[in-house]
Structure formats: structure tokens, C-alpha cells
Amino acid sequence: MGNIQVFKVLNNNVIIANHPQFQEVVVIGKGIGFNCKVGDDLPLTSVEKMFILTNEQEQEQYKQLIPQVAEHLIEIVNEGILYIKEHSKVPLNEHIHIALTDHISFAIKRYDQGIVLHNPFLFETKEMYPEEYRMAEYVVELIRKGFKVDLEEDEIGFVALHIHSALTDQHVNEVKKQSELVAHLVEIVEKSMKFHIPRDSLDYSRFITHLRFALERVRSGKVEQEIGSLDKLLYQEFPDLYSLAWKMTKIMEEKLRKPVYPSEVSYLTVHLQRLSEKNSGTDDRNFV
User: Fold this and answer.
1) pTM of the predicted structure, to 2 decimals
2) Which one, of 189, 279, 177, lies nearest residue 240 by Cα?
3) Rounded to whole angstroms, how far apart are CA atoms 116 and 114?
4) Residue 64 falls within a domain, yes or no?
């Protein structure tokens, strides 16, 4: 398979090397730089379970980050990323090495300074991305054991967003905006229907799941089959619920800057009606 030649050793876990196919690369792996010298040849088979950053911009950002973080952190984060990679069905965007290392480094510093960063979208993140959340729990547990820090559940939510970002090839800011939008839509529903949806309930989980897939359909431009006859029936039977669903789709259009097809209004109305029925003593005539 060929060799890579060591160009520079950044620390015991990170080296810069010349790759036969990608030219200069950043190679990350536990102990990869230990006892290495400039000019040494390493067989590619020896980096089979390690990461090679090939994107030039990612390489430069990672090189700048390395001196600013603890060497032990590189090792632990890479162990976490290997776990994510092994439990994922799609490739990871290599930017996760930078994003996750940088985020966790600051999380540890905040912990040491007694600063708690509240995650306002924790419930939404947990419901929208359950697999990513479980992976994030594993990563945060590695950090807890490795650095003896008791990171809060809020931090698991933040890490889950970074994982989802890497799995879907979206910038983490876009992922955060989606969680924020879902939280905003839930708030509108609760204010309009005048009741709180218990965050640990099946109803909440179902509703969040529907909103997640609705947003993904909008983002991807997927058109759901039109349901004309049902649409008219829902409008006639539940005019206030239908109006609320229409309002929600307009907010989705505004925030995502993409069209929301009429069928989404009907699907939302059905879910809102289910919520209304589950809320004893409240019906669609009590809306504001």
C-alpha cells in the first residue's frame, strides 16, 4: 500500500506527513508520533485505525488548534470519534476533529472556572437526534473519566449537535438553527393551545419527530403527496388547528428560506389534533 513520510511531529498523537496520494496530510492517532523523527517512513497499514485530514483548510485549522489543547485531549477525542465512526452508517465530515476538540477543550475550561453554559434546546436535540445523543453520552463519559470533570447533560446536547453536523455534512450553526426553530414552533403551539406538552411524554416525542422530518423534507426540497380531500376536511372540521398549522409552515418558510408545500399543513393539523385530544379539558375553540 505504500508509506507515508514523517514531515513534522506535532505531538505524540499528531504528525504531519507526506502521503503518496494526498501529498501533505495531518495524521491523527494514539501514539502515532511517539519516537518518530523527521524523514521516518511509516507503512500506511500502521495508520489503518487512525484519521488522515486531507482537506487543506482543515489541515491548517487543526495545526493551529493543536498547541492550544492538552495532548491527552487529542487522544480522548480521537477515541470518541472512532466510536462514532464505528457506529455510524455514513462517513464523517473530517471537520469534526477540529469542531469537537475545540468545543470540548472550552467545555473543560468553563468547568474549571465554574461557568455553566445552559443548553436551551436540550430536549429538542435529544428527541430529534437520539442516535447522535447516545454517541454524545459515550464521548462525554470518556471526557469525564479522562479529565475527572463532571460535565452536565447540557454538554451532551451540544456534543450531539456536533456529531449530527458531521454525519449530515451541515455546518453546526445550521444544525443549531434547526433545533432552535423546533423549540420556537413548540412554544407557539403551547401558547396557542394554552397547555404545556410534558417533555418526557410520548406525545412530545411524536410531535418533535414529525417536526424534524418536516424540516428535513423542506430542506431537501422533497414534495409529499398532496392530500386534497383530507385537506378540505381538516380545514372544515378544525379551522383553528388548521390556521395554527398554516402559521407554523409560514414560519418554517421564513426561517429556512425554502417553500413549504401545502401537504405539510394537513400533516401538522393531524398532529395538532392528536395533541388537542390528549389534553383533557382543552379543545381547539380555546385557542388565542
Assistant:
1) 0.74
2) 189
3) 6
4) no
